[in-house]
Amino acid sequence: xxxxxxxxxxxxxxxxxxxxxxxxxxxxxxxxxxxxxxxxxxxxxxxxxxxxxxxxxxxxxxxxxxxxxxxxxxxxxxxxxxxxxxxxxxxxxxxxxxxxxxxxxxxxxxxxxxxxxxxxxxxxxxxxxxxxxxxxxxxxxxxxxxxxxxxxxxxxxxxxxxxxxxxxxxxxxxxxxxxxxxxxxxxxxxxxxxxxxxxxxxxxxxxxxxxxxx
Length: 214
Fold this sequence. Notes:
5-stranded parallel beta sheet
């Protein structure tokens, strides 16, 4: 009978399925048909600092395996190489230990930067950090007493949190946000990946705020 407990349960499941499908459809339309990704990415980025710097700090991102850079680490490294060519720095620090890899991600990024023309003697690796908070804390130790201005390179959507964490660690930085989400936004097939990164980063910001870290 339609009024049986099993029938009522089936109707609830069906309604839930329809609601979920409707929400997915709405999200699909928002992602593909509106500037949502662009606006969201801008909200998590910061204004590009135009001042010249003396020390370049590059934060690691994803890693695919031992010695193999993930997409965000690769592009941050490529952007840092361009930044160095435009303004040779006296010192470069690459920060990031990575999880579950025998070779820290920062080591792979250093190899990339050396192959891109930056002298190996100028590049220092910070390979103990496993979070942005640790990136800031351990890099601050390396920068203790260092004169000059510090330029920070990371993905655009990561800069909001990174700049605030470095400030908490006592390091004032000039942000150079790589236009990661902004580039992916221009390709319809890449917007979904950008949305996932934005969602994860937003959760991390909320978590860090809850703990009073930023």
